[in-house]
Amino acid sequence: MPKLKPDTQRLRRENILDAAHSCFARGGFHATTMQDICKAASVSPGALYVYFDSKEALIAGLCERDRAEFAERFASLSTAPDFLEALTAIGEHYFVDESPEKQRFVVEMGVESTRNPRIAEIFMSVDKFCSDSFEALFQRLKDEGRIAPRVDVPTLAKVFNVIGDGLFWRRAIEPNFNAREVLPVVIELVGSLLNPIEPMSMDVPVSKNREARR
């Protein structure tokens, strides 16, 4: 059998991950079988096992893909001149634009992590990566004088995570939940905790400029 080209292998792997994601979100980790995923991906068991040898390996692949996507989006957030505006755009992506299936998958994996040590290791590593990324960003913004948080930065990051988890849960379980309605309020709440500091105006009176140079 001729060896598949790298692009073909990548596309097949992504197709399998997409199928696994749908199966896990719909049926849960335990009820989903490798055969279910083969059927959803339209591949043979032999083809599936070339890429993933277990359901845990599939979860690892899905979580790593999510981590990489988050890292890419976070990079634009961390360099944005208007942090809250950029945060709103990310919130709209994860809580408005994405299918609720994504939230159901995250909730399912979170619950499974309480029973399966291997899933816990995979799931919590991604969760920690996201949490640490925001904590480091908040600390940098504070150090740069761009925010004056009303609580210490580690606590702020934990509260931020709780708010995000709540949005994930609500969207996963409530079919008619409209995140677009509540997102502006959530951003306002986060903003009040971050307490952004307005940059100094460039339109400073001449007398003050002279005083500053003395």
Describe this structure in words.
It is a single chain. Helix content is 75%, strand content 0%. The protein is an all-alpha fold and 214 residues long. The protein has two domains: 1-53, Orthogonal Bundle (Arc Repressor Mutant, subunit A), CATH 1.10.10.60; 64-194, Tetracycline Repressor, domain 2. Helix 8 (153-173) runs antiparallel to helix 9 (179-194). The termini are far apart.
Short description, anyone?
With 214 residues, the protein is mostly helical.
Which blocks of ≥5 consecutive residues have pLDDT under 50? 201-214
Give a short account of the largest sheet: none
- N→C terminal distance: 79 Å
Helix percentage range: over 70%
Principal-axes geometry comes out as elongated
Number of helices: 10
CATH C-level name of the largest domain: Mainly Alpha
SSE order and pairing:
Blueprint: H1 6-27, H2 34-41, H3 45-51, H4 55-78, H5 83-97, H6 100-112, H7 117-143, H8 153-173, H9 179-194, H10 206-213
From the structure above, extract its key features.
single chain, 214 residues, mainly alpha, Arc Repressor Mutant, subunit A, Tetracycline Repressor, domain 2, 2 domains, 10 helices, 0% strand
